[in-house]
Amino acid sequence: MIVRRSLLVACALIAASVTAHAQTAAEKALAADKFTLVAPFPPGGPIDTLARIIADGLGKRYGQVALVDNAPGAAGNIGMEKVKKAKPDGHTLLVIPAGNLTINPTLMPKFPFNVDKDFVPVAMLAKTPNVLVTHPGTGLKSVADLIKAAKAKPDSLSYASPGIGSGLHLAGELFKDQAKVEMLHVAYKGTPPALNDVLGGTVPLMFSNLPTVLPHLKSGKLVALAVTDSTRTPSAPDVPTMTEAGVPGIVVPSWYGLLAPAGTPTDVAEQLARDAQDILTQPAVREQLKAQGMTEWNLQTGAFGAHIRDETARWAKVIKARNITME
């Protein structure tokens, strides 16, 4: 009995020793200080939501204070500058949408960052599908109907966007290239006025984030022609993908990523990527994302960096081919 008890005590000590030494150097470094999640846009919306989700998760995991710093201005550049200049120890992180990383470098003649050199890609966080919608008064029921009408009378159809160079503007330009049609672009200062004119029938079409237009699709005020994603979305399962609708090559969901300052140690970035995945796959967080029309997207460090470079090259071709410039 004494021998057995001694063995149990020894096993417990070994287990405790293993647990005590299980924490990696990266985890120890991350547990040493508070976190600041920089969201370069105002409170509300997907960037703010994701920043708060990641901050909450990191704070609980490492027992540290974790704050969200909303730093809007200059199309997101003010917040990016804060992170660029931060100490590269994994405690100041950037939550950012795709366009700031993959469109602005080409679109803005004086873009003040080199994304490859100024930041370390940590992880893709989440995505939301975009959808091509039309006013029911157009009579268009499918992408095939749209292409037929556009080819019959080039530039007779127009599409709205929240602004020149926005991801939704470029989705429209990519559609024109892939479908071999010409449509007029009508730029607005934000999504609300663009959507209002499509709802009113002033402009017949627009590409939009699905969560923004979903209530109008359900009420019949808008008609969805296709989603710009690789698969159909559970939120609108009857809406085909662009590929299914006959126009391949248009897989352009809106996505959001997590970056750190250049110089952040590789093991710290990789640990943060694992932490982000763990946080975003928790059932309660998944439900929170779903309510915002988002799903988590697991793409980490090197793979995430490659994705940024690939999308930057793709949008650069569209911007240059269409001679798109900032006003």
TrEMBL record:
Signal peptide interval: 1-22
Keywords recorded for this protein, A-Z: Signal
Database matches in SUPFAM superfamilies: Periplasmic binding protein-like II (SSF53850)
Entry keyword annotation includes Ribosomal protein: no
Stored Pfam families: TctC
Superkingdom classification of source: Bacteria
PANTHER family named among the record's database cross-references: BLR1237 PROTEIN, TRICARBOXYLATE-BINDING PROTEIN
Assigned protein family: Belongs to the UPF0065 (bug) family.
The protein's name: Bug family tripartite tricarboxylate transporter substrate binding protein
Organism: Hydrogenophaga atypica
